[in-house]
Design brief:
The chain is an alpha/beta fold. The chain folds into 4 domains: 14-22 and 236-289 and 337-391 and 419-532, NAD(P)-binding Rossmann-like Domain (Rossmann fold); 24-235, NAD(P)-binding Rossmann-like Domain (Rossmann fold), CATH 3.40.50.720; 548-685, Hotdog Thioesterase (Thiol Ester Dehydrase, Chain A), CATH 3.10.129; 692-850, Roll (Thiol Ester Dehydrase, Chain A). The protein is 33% helix and 25% strand. The N and C termini lie far apart (85 Å). The model has no long low-confidence stretch (mean pLDDT 94).
Length: 851
């Protein structure tokens, strides 16, 4: 009888998967280099620089510029073997210190996979990343301190493949991954991978490579597209994206590599339970023998099994060692995992086809793919999980080890894709890691291979548009797999990196496939700890006393005093300390005796932050405004407002996703509490908003409510008593802007960008309708969009807010002058109801005009 193989120790849980933050790499704008500090690298007479040129002429232009600066350029003009290159580099080293390396081999686009043989693929990766490995390993003792550098270049499209079009030359991902890992090993070195869009320009790109070497030490991944400078950040996005997900069923065909790994076995079981489909399982491990009693003992009697294996080794005449026993156990573990996967498929009513194959063997993979084609005719889900990881710093990482770790993932991927032929492929899921996304010390090979897979998946949007491509950047798993053993959990904890709960990881692929139409890379992790640490304290910005940014922050706007930095993930960070005893917009905006930052001044703060890096732009709109929590000034004490902004492009507009944060030190808590109070997206246009006209407001004809009655209801002090009177006109309520208002802020000569008191006029006028019709008062909760149409200082006559209630309870509003000039539009404003009832006697004047 066949031995009983137990079910997987852990089962997938979609709720656990949904609890994991779903972060997606996205392109963010970086500041212009003129706003950045010096990197610490100088290129002058005496500099000795290695250049691996491209074939398109950028390298030639770069060499000319370096020579003009007086540098000695050491050019790798051919494609040597690794051993030949090492000898050449050693000879160059013997002649003096080498300051840096420019690596441009990945600027050349490779041929499409379908036009390459395995030998072509290996030659392409040898040139791009294997020779880079030999170079940096040999120069590790030279490129290891401030003032030295590694700058590589890629042709992924200018945004590192994180745009809608997808990566252009995905083999550049191997160079990108290596470069990021080198930065982790050598944090004092200036390390960058600079990405470009396809272009015939050479001189301009050479100039940019030199400028990137000399400026901005705060970024590693940087690129150029649409005449803008980019980097890669993270954004949380839901798996449910409105597109139709995949329905998994008995007809679904899966092909899974690395199938004998414990994690992959558990994922296979999860997919089998969900589908009962057809599974083609590939692994180097031999096909497991269901009659092997050692497989049952592996699960139930491991300690005695170890003793028996030790004795067997002795009896065979070998010198038995604990290492040899562990090797035998590792083989049994993979066979056990493979058999568990097969049994899980069969128990779910599916069919399992197991292939013992070396992913590196092109002929063997051709044969396996031919069998898959003959059996199933298509692949609905290709899961490339095969791979291994061996952590060693670059000087200790022998060439054979680098090749093995890199090739299993890289060549295995090529052997899968190149043998697909015309077989339909529904979705491809590749296993990457946080080492591929962020780089990791000791994992130059693993980072290189994983980032290559990510960029290849990105390129599917360009060259396989009918196939969904998904890359998963896994963190270390807890409870299952190699990372759950030994000292790794303690190392991860010290680095602030959370281990992934296995039940969340196991179901994650099922969720990605079925919840929506995912076609992207996803970071699968909770806390990322040191991976999100900045490379430079100011994020690369020049914040010296005489810098442009310091001047702007100190002299322009009301809500920015100090630029803190430009974080890769936090974005531009600005601080402003506000004193409620000094600012009218605070001491005239108190709720129950506590000053509260007006929501409209929050909008002003976000708008000022968005425009700081782009002073030539015009404020066009503020969208998706959320007032999440009031920003209070407890005990009337000063408090610091922090604004963060990440920038991207939307058509011709620059958009800034902004957050207004507050920090409090609560009694009894060691760490300060950081809260997000407001969020919004600020839109900046290249041209001034077009002037607009709107029909004149209807004159007051009948009853109105005057300021005296209005401010028996509202809590505002003089600076925010913006309504002089309000009246109803048809289905609108009109509010007249008060004249001769006290100053809004100090210093009074500073001007506002977002016309905060005109937005407040809309809020308060909408409140007249809300209180008069529903007998309730609400505080601002959100706005779908605020648009700006011109400078209110040019208004002719009295300004008015014309507010229209919508069926969903929200309000639209326009601010216009006496000639019908339109200055501001507010759409989708909604409030959150205050619980306290309002006295009928003070509501009565409002009800009379509304009803």
């Amino acid at each position: 009888a066949q031995p009983e193989i137990s079910a997987p120790q852990f089962r997938g849980d979609l709720q656990a998967s949904a609890a994991i933050p779903r972060r997606v790499p996205v392109p963010f704008l970086r500041p212009e280099l003129t706003l950045c500090k010096a990197s610490g690298v100088t290129l002058t007479a005496g500099s000795r620089v290695v250049v691996m040129p491209d074939q398109g002429g950028v390298g030639k232009a770069l060499i000319k510029r370096l020579e003009k600066l007086g540098a000695e350029v050491l050019v790798i003009e051919d494609v040597p073997t690794g051993e030949e290159l090492v000898k050449r580099l050693e000879a160059w080293k013997a002649q003096g210190e080498i300051q840096g390396v420019f690596w441009l081999a990945a600027l050349d686009e490779e041929a499409p996979v379908e036009n390459m043989k395995l030998a072509d693929w290996k030659a392409a990766t040898h040139l791009r990343v294997k020779l880079l490995y030999h170079t940096m390993r040999t120069l590790y003792g030279h490129i290891n301190q401030p003032g030295t550098f590694l700058v590589s270049a890629t042709r992924l499209g200018g945004r590192h493949g994180y745009d809608a079009a997808g990566a252009v030359a995905p083999l550049g991902g191997a160079v990108s991954g290596f470069t990021k890992a080198y930065k982790r090993e050598q944090p004092e070195v200036l390390v960058k991978v600079v990405d470009f869009a396809p272009s015939r320009k050479t001189a301009q790109l050479a100039d940019l490579l030199i400028e990137e070497t000399l400026l901005d030490p705060g970024v590693v991944e940087v690129g150029y597209a649409e005449e803008r400078r980019w980097t890669v950040g993270l954004a949380e996005m839901p798996a449910e994206d409105g597109r139709l997900g995949m329905t998994l069923g008995r007809e679904t065909v899966f092909l899974i590599t690395g199938a004998a790994g414990s994690i992959v076995s558990a994922i296979t079981a999860d997919l089998a339970d969900a589908s009962g489909g057809v599974f083609h399982l590939l692994d180097l491990a031999p096909r497991p023998d269901p009659g092997n009693p050692d497989l049952v003992r592996f699960a139930n009697d491991k300690e005695n099994l170890k003793k028996d294996i030790f004795q067997r080794l002795k009896d065979s005449g070998q010198r038995a060692t604990p290492a040899m026993v562990e090797k035998e156990l590792a083989s049994l573990e993979r066979q056990y995992a493979a058999l568990s996967a097969i049994r899980a498929v069969e128990q779910a009513g599916g069919s399992a086809h197991y292939y013992s194959v070396n992913l590196l063997d092109g002929a063997a993979m051709d044969a396996v793919m031919s069998q898959v084609r003959q059996t199933s005719g298509r692949i609905d889900v290709l899961l490339h999980a095969g791979g291994l990881e061996i952590s060693r710093l670059l000087p200790d990482k022998a060439p054979g080890e680098f090749d093995l770790v890199f090739d299993v993932k890289s060549d295995g991927w090529f052997n899968l894709l190149s043998n697909l032929g015309d077989m339909p492929l529904g979705a491809a899921v590749v296993f990457s890691s946080i080492a591929g996304r962020f780089g990791n010390g000791g994992q130059t090979d693993y980072s290189s291979a994983n980032d290559l897979l990510c960029k290849s998946i990105s390129a599917f949007r360009r060259n396989r548009p009918d196939t969904r491509g998904i890359a998963l950047d896994w963190t270390a798993w807890g409870g299952i797999g190699m990372a759950a053993r030994g000292s790794i959990p303690a190392i991860m904890k010290a680095a602030g990196i959370d281990m992934l709960p296995p039940e969340a990881g196991i179901a994650f692929i099922r969720r990605e496939l079925s919840a929506g139409g995912t076609r992207q890379e996803v970071v699968v992790a909770q806390g990322l700890g040191m991976m999100l640490n900045e490379f430079d304290e100011s994020g690369g910005l020049d914040l010296g006393e005489n810098s442009e940014l310091a001047r702007q922050a100190g002299t322009q706007g009301i809500m920015n005093d100090r630029v803190v930095g430009m974080g890769l993930y936090s974005g531009l960070t600005i601080e402003k300390t506000l004193d409620p005893s000094e600012q009218p917009f605070l001491y005239d905006h108190q709720i129950d005796g506590t000053p509260v930052l007006p929501g409209v001044m929050g909008i002003e703060a976000l708008s000022e932050a968005a425009r700081l890096l782009f002073p030539d732009r015009h404020l066009a709109a503020v969208e998706e405004v959320n007032f999440l929590a009031p920003f209070k000034f407890y005990r009337n004490e000063p408090r610091t407002v922090t604004v963060q902004a990440n920038f991207s492009l939307d058509g011709e507009d620059i958009v800034a996703d902004c957050r207004l944060l507050g920090t409090r030190q609560l009694h009894g808590q060691a760490a300060p509490q950081v809260s997000t109070h407001f969020t919004a997206r600020v839109r900046l246009s290249a041209t001034a908003p077009e002037k607009a006209k709107y029909p004149l407001p209807a004159p007051m004809n009948g009853k109105s409510v005057e300021a005296e009655d209005i401010y028996r209801l509202y809590f505002h002090g003089p600076a925010y008593r913006v309504l002089e009177r309000a009246w109803r006109s048809g289905e609108q309520v009109l509010g007249a802007f008060a004249e001769d208002l006290p100053e809004n802020h100090r210093p009074v000569e500073r001007i506002t960008l977002a016309s905060p008191r005109l937005i407040e006029l809309c809020f308060q006028t909408a409140g007249i309708w809300e209180m008069g019709s529903k007998s309730r008062m609400g505080l601002p909760h959100g706005i779908r969009r605020v648009e700006f149409h011109g400078d209110p200082a040019a208004a002719k006559g009295r300004l008015h807010a014309a507010v229209t209630p919508n069926p969903d309870g929200s309000f639209d509003a326009r601010v216009i002058d006496g000639k019908g000039n339109h200055f501001l539009t507010l759409a989708g404003y909604h409030t959150s109801e205050l619980p306290d009832p309002i006295a009928e006697d003070i509501l009565s004047p409002l009800k009379q005009i509304v009803n």
